[in-house]
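job 3f2a | input accepted
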Amino acid sequence: MELRIRSLREDSGLFQRNIAEHLGCTQQTYSRYEIGELEPSLYIMTQLAEFYGTSVDYLMGLTDVRAPYKRTDK
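job 3f2a | predicted structure (74 res):
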C-alpha cells in the first residue's frame, strides 16, 4: 500500500504536505503512512481513495484496477 500512495502522490505532482493538509494530519504522519511505519485508518484510506479517484482495494494492493468501483444507490 505504501508504494501505491507514494506513486499516486508523485504522479499527481503533489508534496506530502499537500496530502496531509487534505487529510487533516501532519506531514510527518502522512510520511509514516507512505513508508509503512503507520497504518492509516479506514477513514483515511477512504479519503485517499476518493482524493485519487480510485478504490481502497487498489490502494491496499488487492487489485491492479485503478478505476474505482461503480457505486450503487440503495
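job 3f2a | The domain at 2-60 is CATH 1.10.260.40 (434 Repressor (Amino-terminal Domain)).
job 3f2a | closed
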